[in-house]
Amino acid sequence: MSAVQFPIAANAAAALAAPLGRAARAREAALAAGAQVAFVSEAVGPAFATREAALDAYAGRLDDERPGRSVSVPPEDRYCVLREVQAAPPPVRARKPMRPVYAEGRRWPAPATPPKTVWRLSVSYWRVAAPGDRPSLPPTRGRLPAGADARALRERLESPLTAPKPQKALDIGLFEVRPPEAPHILMPDE
């Protein structure tokens, strides 16, 4: 089976319209783009009320199993997926605790009406790092200085948590110990 060839682009719309190239792996994508890449999946295009309307709008990009419109996308072109998403997030309201009703064989009241959903096209692609994007920061140590501002705190929070050096392999069992006078020997310790 051949691997999916994901587009390489700066955003999802460019991935559909005019990608810089296509690659299956991050290393290949980085070589083709000449910059760092990150694998992302983003919704693009308008929202459709029905799945059929979305399939009609994106004919040829998605598998369509409807009678009379049978389309099968090649395995290397399967980077688009239709997803059913909530139309608009509900307003956040404080809810009071529910009380059990114990009526007609039900313990809890009937659920509220389900939220309205729409169909969106989701594109998976290799996003090219913009020139202004910061590379991953080195690990930070210690506390922030006393006069640190919000920007310094934000930078500290965004920096990755990495170890100062790679972890060594655990070559000693749970009940083994190295004696201080001969560290090259492992002794059972029970």
Description of the structure:
The chain is of the alpha+beta class. The protein has helices spanning 12-17, 26-33, 51-57, 150-158; strands at residues 6-9, 21-23, 37-48, 80-86, 117-128, 176-177, 187-188. Strands 1, 2, 3, 4 and 5 form a five-stranded mixed sheet that branches. A two-stranded antiparallel sheet has the order 6-7.
N-to-C span: 52 Å
Counting helices, strands and paired strands, the structural category is alpha+beta
What's the mean pLDDT score?
83
Number of H/I helices: 4
User: How would the global form be characterised?
Assistant: extended
- Radius of gyration of CA atoms, rounded to a whole number: 27 Å
Major beta-sheet overview: 5 strands, mixed
> How many distinct beta strands?
7
Low-confidence stretches: 135-139
Q: Kindly estimate the percentage of residues that lie in beta strands according to DSSP.
A: 15-25%
Fraction in helix: 10-25%
Order of helices and strands: EHEHEHEEHEE
Give the SSE map.
Elements: E1 6-9, H1 12-17, E2 21-23, H2 26-33, E3 37-48, H3 51-57, E4 80-86, E5 117-128, H4 150-158, E6 176-177, E7 187-188
Parallel strand pairs: 1-5
Antiparallel strand pairs: 1-2, 3-5, 4-5, 6-7
Précis, in short:
With 190 residues, the protein is of the alpha+beta class. The protein has helices at residues 12-17, 26-33, 51-57, 150-158; strands at residues 6-9, 21-23, 37-48, 80-86, 117-128, 176-177, 187-188. The chain is extended and about 80 Å long.
Key features of this structure:
190 residues; two-stranded antiparallel sheet; 5-stranded mixed sheet
